[in-house]
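Please fill in the sequence for the structure shown.

STRUCTURE ENCODING:
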């Protein structure tokens, strides 16, 4: 795997509802992106009861790894004291493996691994990847792929702009998109990006 830089996680029985008009890997590389996603939602708090405390400890131990223009404001509404449970749903992610292999994320993962939460709780790749991307990348390096209509039952992301939907010849129902469902974190992302 070391010879590869980019990956796109695709799971069985997913559906893509729009024609892709561009190469997402080239887009990521040309625009200095390290992490791309289509759906964001809340994590189940009972599965990660101690995760955020360890994240805070790591941030205190390694402030040198925290990106200057990070996306902590998407993950926490109080400057990092409490985790709002938002994460990027990792069953669709396009990412730069140089970022995951870099010193910040490697140290972060090894630190979390030493705490046992992957085994004794249920720390999954979605919150861990999301927190790592939010802390160690600049927010401009994270990308919402709005134009990629994606369904992983029971959730669907469908482009919400009519021109994007038409250009992609999308087959999804815009009215059934998960983007602004009560369990979605998209409104938090929008507010965070708008500042």
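FILLED IN BY: designer on duty
SEQUENCE:
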């Amino acid at each position: 795997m070391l010879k590869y830089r980019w990956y796109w996680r695709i799971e069985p029985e997913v559906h893509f509802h729009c024609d892709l008009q561009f190469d997402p890997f080239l887009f990521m590389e040309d625009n200095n992106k390290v992490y791309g996603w289509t759906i964001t939602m809340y994590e189940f708090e009972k599965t990660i009861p101690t995760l955020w405390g360890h994240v805070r400890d790591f941030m205190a131990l390694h402030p040198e790894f925290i990106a200057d223009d990070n996306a902590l404001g998407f993950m926490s509404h109080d400057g990092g004291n409490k985790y709002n449970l938002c994460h990027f749903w990792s069953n669709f992610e396009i990412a730069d493996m140089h970022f995951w292999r870099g010193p910040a994320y490697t140290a972060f993962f090894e630190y979390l691994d030493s705490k046992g939460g992957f085994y004794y709780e249920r720390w999954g790749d979605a919150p861990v990847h999301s927190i790592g991307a939010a802390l160690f990348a600049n927010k401009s390096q994270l990308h919402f792929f709005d134009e990629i209509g994606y369904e992983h039952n029971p959730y669907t992301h469908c482009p919400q702009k009519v021109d994007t939907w038409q250009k992609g010849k999308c087959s999804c129902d815009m009215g059934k998109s998960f983007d602004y469902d009560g369990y979605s974190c998209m409104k938090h992302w929008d507010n965070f990006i708008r500042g």
